[in-house]
Amino acid sequence: MEGPTPVSALIHAATMVTAGIFLLLRAAFIFTASPKVQLAIVVVGVVTAVLSAISAMFVFDLKKIIAYSTCSQIGYMAVACGIAQYNIAFFHLINHAFFKALLFLTAGAVIHSCSNEQDIRKLSNIFPGMPLIYVAFLVGNIAIMGFPFISGFYSKDLIIEFCFLGADSVWVFWTYAGQALFIGVLGATICTGLYSFRLVYFLFLRSGVRHKISLMRSVQLQPMFIR
Prior knowledge:
Layout: H1 5-13, H2 19-26, H3 28-31, H4 35-56, H5 62-82, H6 86-113, H7 131-145, H8 151-165, H9 167-170, H10 177-205, H11 215-226
């Protein structure tokens, strides 16, 4: 979805993108009555989480990486709904809204300060010119990675834990459901850590010629952080 960065932050955090998960939560009493439907939701969730996380590892557009990340996190929520842990899915939905909005807004600050450049291969070593943006961007990334004692850790850890412990009790007819589910979700989690670190490395830690930050745009961005 093409749009200004603040609009992307809104739709990825709280409105259109997460509407499907909200529908699953509101219709929980319907899906709980059919184990086969729950199985279908889990399969779609695992495939979505894994493929989206892998896709985020191989694209270079800053906003597309974060957008693929959103799609991957929605896969986690679908998995939680499929194993009948609707409260955990809602918990991760709320956590995701905050750190994903933070990531989009900080990415927008980077893009507008660097002459609307979105290719991370052309952006490097911008930490000296934007230390506050670096701190905010780092917090958002470690939250989505599930760093201990950050918001994303509590919700993602619960989803992975219930995938490991409770999946077989939901689908008695599939003996290895819990193992396959756990491996898929764990693989998506590993990919999440990889593309999040890749993003931070390309923008702030990679050595090279620092992108010339527009002074006018940097000055215009300062009141936003003061407010």
